[in-house]
Sequence to fold (709 residues):
Amino acid sequence: MRLYKKKYTPEEPVSVTPMGKIKGYPVRPGMFDKNGATVLPVGVNFTIHTHHGTSCELLLFHRGEQEPFVVLPFPETYKIGDVYSMIVFGLKIKNLEYAYRVDGPYNPKKGMIYNKNKILLDPYAKAVAGQRIWGETQKGPYRARIVEDTFDWGNSHQSTKKMSDLVIYELHVRGFTQHESSGVTNRGTFRGLQEKIPYLKELGINAVELMPIFEFDETMGIREHNGKKLCDYWGYNTVSFFAPNTSYNATDEYNQEGKELKSLIRELHDNGIEVILDVVFNHTAEGNEQGPTFSFKGLDNKIYYLLTPDGHYYNFSGCGNTLNCNHPIVQQMILECLRYWTINYRIDGFRFDLASILGRNEDGSPMNNPPLLRTLAYDPVLSNVKLIAEAWDAGGMYQVGKFPASKRWAEWNGRYRDVIRGYLKGENWEAWAAAWSICGSGDLYGGFDVEYKGDYAGYDSCINFLTCHDGFTLYDLYSYNEKHNEENGWNNTDGANDNRSWNCGAEGDTDDPQVLALRFRMMRNAAAVLFCSRGTPMFLAGDEFGNTQFGNNNSYCQDNEISWLNWGLLEKNRELFEFFQYMIAFRHAHPAIRRHLPQAVCGMEPMSSHDVDGENTKLPPDTRTFAVSFAGYDVQKGRDDVVYIALNTYWENVKITLPYVPNGAWYLSVNTYGDENGTYCYREGEEIRIYQEFVMMPRSVAVFIRKNF
Fold:
């Protein structure tokens, strides 16, 4: 028998052809497993799902017009399960916007509020129309635009930085450069932030955490108080989870939305800076019963939101509604969203606002092992992405140190903030807790480093911070005893009351040189402790040059000089900036602070606390002065790395004795009180040798390193 080989020819691509017409438009059933709107060579695929909805219509608009030029009902044959999908042939996306209408039962007590007249935004929309100009009220219902991704990432690859090696800088994209003193061309935009990358490099940080950049409507709830317009400035009120905030663009990006943001991210990466997004999956901008219906409510209200038995909204977010995160449909959306931002925007990490809500069951009760958190922890696409939880919510759940992390999540360490703030201002009864906190809060997160890839158990779970967007700036922390939120229009009733702040002798602005000297010393103390603590440090943009919000600790509605960074303070307070710069570089130079190293040759323990006598490692419970040491062998440098940080929160001098170290000596690197020349820190090779004893000045911090003879 003779075998004949058939000559190989590539298969012809299966052609996608129309299978019918609706109102003159050629159509066919679409790609049911592809959510949202997808550009095809022949047209556009539209896919959406609703569980209790009984019918669905696709509305197509010309750009900027309020009335659709055609409404295309989905035939029942274009539905599989709960999913409607249709390819519309011949559509050109450049002048196209779209939305949906869904009909179904109306029974609010059972959580169903379908309305066939409501125009609904696609939950998977990659861009939202009508949001381009900041502060301009949305005209008509939300509509989506279709995005064609042509951005070239070149050879950029995912960051491999460890969590413990990061120094995180939290900022608001608009507020960072909106003030006229910023000196950038494109103020208040992604490009404006991109113009400041040289500054970020000079400062030394290697990660930025961007406050919400998902599409939100800053004009929601807009009002006037004392002649100022107040708005939803922070943006913790998501309209669309897959779409970037187009009002942060410097130019129009029709059908290329996200290009400026991607350019920013690529340049940050090229300069060694990771990008972490602050994401808000705990609630949406649709609010409670009085809020609008523009997307999730109209598609499947009782699936997307936590509802009481009589159909009202649980409010564990403090913002009117609570996303039903552990429903499989919502889990799928959140997972797809995070994958989308990781793949298409190369995001390095996500900080989850009020993350405890992600662990609530459909009845609002806490879950022991929430499926969403496990899903995100073990998802292969997200395996190298940093996951950071704000481990509490507005419903009273507080999980700092107890977040159901699957050995994968890190946490904002709220206890660190409270304890270190209190101790530095003189609450000496916090001494033990302060020592634990500086040592990495091992009682909360475990005192070990885990080799397992991606496992954040131990110190890598701990994000240390003293300031963030929510609360006082560092300058205000030492300038105000009380919050001053009168400009928010709520009679100063909003914002936290427990700030553990201290005005150093005068409330607010003062010309008193002694008060000002003490304030700046306290800021140096805070910075020195933060950057010499085990765990990952994070601080608020502007703290490094003494930015103020004039005592406002809840500036969520202030799109003005209260919230915008005043870059004029950079030159005025240049010494403070240089101190931050030094401390960040010091942290990068001393791996013993960041993680356990091999045993130090000099014999010092990897980490210890010390009384005023450095040989005594047992602290009095209410001591005003103590020290913490970090030690190990730095393999890369071939020598011991030993750091000793001492805190004196007493208002008088205190003499301390440093531990005996064989074949070496102690050198002073940092003294926040300053010497007779006004020097606070000493560059490498210029440190001052210390002979065992050192007199710490009032309310000061000193940092020492050990060198071999």
Remarks:
- The longest strand covers residues 625-634.
- The CA atoms of residues 531 and 587 lie 6 Å apart.
- The two ends are 89 Å apart (CA to CA).
- Residues 1-14, 448-457 have pLDDT under 50 and may be disordered.
